[in-house]
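Because discrete structure vocabularies remain unfamiliar, we reproduce here a specimen of the format, pairing a chain with its fold in token form:
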Amino acid sequence: MDAIRAKPSSQAPIDETSLAAWLALLHCPGIGPRRYRTLLEYYHQPRTLLDAGASEINRLDLPNKTKAWLKKPDWRKVEPDLTWLNSSPDHHIISINDQDYPERLKQIDSAPPLLFTMGNNELLKTTQLGIVGSRNPSAGGKENSFHFAQSLSQAGLTITSGMALGIDAAAHKGALASSGKTIAVTGNGLDRVYPARHRQLAHDIAASGTIISEFPIGTPPLPDHFPRRNRIISGLSLGILVVEATPKSGSLISARLANEQGLEVFAIPGSIHNPLARGCHQLIRQGAKLVETTADILEEIGVQLNNAPMTDTNPKANMELDASSLKLLSIIGHDPCSIDTLIARSQLPAEQISSILLVLELRGMVSSLAGGLYIKATNHK
């Protein structure tokens, strides 16, 4: 095995033999995060296990393929990880024994034994809020994600998400437009960008934020990796904000995990005619906090923000409306008006009207009534 450069940590420098052992155990078949941690509780260091000898390894309650690997690791599997580590000073590998490892993440049931990181590791210890949602959101949903992330970032939170299409990407961009404090958790190795169209976004995040993964270099973005990614998003965060989601959305996994971890779950409501709002409504019925402004979030977690500003109002309240929104607002009067009536009067498609109504509601310009009716807000002429 080629000589490697050891990475320093705040606890103790890790020598090349120890780091290679950590990585070898990560690649070992039959060892996931839970089993890895169980072995660490007994052996403390992977090197101790690998040096234990065949007779002791044979006594362990492990699959035969796992025992065979432990007795004779394939060190070639480790080489891509070490090559990646040495390719840039911004590349890091953090073990769960390292003081740089996020303490909040360490407490979850299946904490990753290793984190591959790219960018500013200091953000891992900052106060974080996860923002998740649909990969195919409405225009209003993407705007909400961007502006909530921007405003919450200004209030001192680091925005954590999964760099997926749609809501995730908008959240990262909102944070980058403000403080730049954002963390992307991926479901693949950090030698590749998924989705590929987010190559520039990944570059921007790595430049001022952090990209992290529990998966070794060369790991593809497989479907079962994304629930694992979601547990890290919730594990790093004080709470999870769901912007738009269907009832079967993977975003609800993050919300469920956050709830199981005793974290705050926030959800932005939407039009009853918008299918992307139904997942959020489901969460609200189950006890998630209904969110209309960033103040709704900050009042729940403000104490842990060291007295960060909590007087923030709707982040979009002062933005100018586009022509379609102005048109629809002029049509909505002070008498209740149905979606069908708005379609007939405006000649706009139903999906666009639903998105516009969500934005107008969040700005306090219109109110929704029972039966799917809308009315101009009393404080808006």
About this structure: The chain has three domains: 16-119, 123-305, 323-376.
